[in-house]
Amino acid sequence: MKKLFLITVLITLSFPIFSQQNETILTNKDGIAILPERGNIAIGIDAVPFLNLLNDKGDSPGFNFINNIPALSLKYFNTNSSALRASVMIGYNSLKAGDESLENYNQEINSSFGVNLGYEKRLGVSRVQGFYGLQGEFIYGKDKITNDEEIVFMETSTLGLGASLFVGAEVFVATKLSIGGQFSWGPTYIIEKDTENNTAFSTFNLSTSNANGALILLFHF
Fold first, then answer.
1. CATH of the domain at 65
2. What is the pTM of this model?
3. Do residues 65 and 105 make contact, with C-beta atoms less than 8 angstroms apart?
């Protein structure tokens, strides 16, 4: 009975020790956590302009969109080892071409919207972090050409759905600052319609992707 009591006490006392080991936080010399923590938000931008400085290419770094696609990329860390991901793209463009007074003209209007939502799990307790997860995508676009009398010459629309598994890695080069990339694999289904000609076609694709080789710079705060 005494042995059983001692074993129970030892196991109970060991729980805080194991907990502390599992919750070990990597910090810098000032005691600030290097890796993202629960409640942190991350913003992703194109890392290439910053890396060009190391190659003496003379390009000025800036907060550039990844792959030149005008989308805002965000993460929210709901735990220390998982995050909700999202990217949103909204585009609108209007172009008029005609005589000098623009009283007689043709106008082309392009509009687009896309959203990508996902969930990722993270591995590792060092500056090198691996991650994997699942994401889904929705895109919609419309292109329309009219003249000053609002006669429609062309009107097309695009609707796309996709889902993919992804895996990637990041290296934290500084506190809350990482460079990484990922590969993804999954299906994409797109329907395109031409309203004026009453035609439509669809495409289905199942393949891997590495975001066109993009390297992503992530700021966490």
1. 2.40.160
2. 0.77
3. no
